[in-house]
Design goal:
Blueprint (H helix, E strand, L loop, with lengths): L1 E3 L4 H10 L3 E3 L9 E5 L2 E7 L9 E3 L1 E3 L3 H10 L3 E9 L3 E7 L5 E7 L24 H12 L2 E7 L2 E8 L2 E2 L3
């Protein structure tokens, strides 16, 4: 998870809120990109807005083996590429995209940096949810792009859908 913000106070806010030590990239080209740790493991990051189309928001990133291929699939499935695939030093390859309804998320192709190393513990990432006006379209989009399996559960008047990979929820 990355918080995308042009506010330099974001680093202090999350350090104070969660107790995450902040490690700011020394490279000027990184524009203050910050990696937060919990118990010595990468927990989240804060990065600058890369263009005016990017919202100030937390952004879920999906790990992929090939960012360029995934971005092409997203465009073919009706999504948009907001920030074209780019190398992030030797850490990995990155893009910002939207699904077919405009919900933004990131793509991450790991190289030296795998992504977050800690999940499902107090003060760390546990879950992402998509709230959409087009649940059927979302199911098709994410199946087409990532091969995710949609599993529905009735919750009163609402159908709650989770996505799984090889039968297991992610992150597992």
């Amino acid at each position: 998870m990355t918080v995308i913000s042009s506010d330099p106070g974001a680093r202090d806010f999350y350090t104070n809120l969660f107790g995450w030590p902040a490690h700011v990239s020394p490279e000027p080209e990184a524009m203050g990109y910050t990696l937060f740790h919990k118990d010595g493991k990468a927990a989240a990051a804060a990065g600058p807005l890369m263009n005016q189309a990017m919202p100030v928001a937390w952004m879920t990133q999906v790990s992929v083996t090939d960012v360029d291929e995934a971005a092409a699939k997203i465009a073919k499935a009706g999504g948009q590429v907001i920030v074209a695939p780019m190398d992030v030093f030797t850490q990995g390859r990155f893009a910002v995209v939207t699904d077919q309804t405009g919900a933004p998320f990131g793509l991450w192709q790991p190289r030296d940096m795998s992504g977050a190393d800690i999940f499902n513990v107090d003060g760390a990432y546990t879950w992402s949810e998509l709230t959409t006006r087009d649940p059927l379209g979302a199911k098709e989009f994410y199946r087409e792009v990532f091969g995710w399996e949609a599993h529905d559960r009735e919750n009163g008047p609402v159908t709650y859908t989770t996505f799984k990979v090889d039968g297991a929820p992610r992150p597992a």
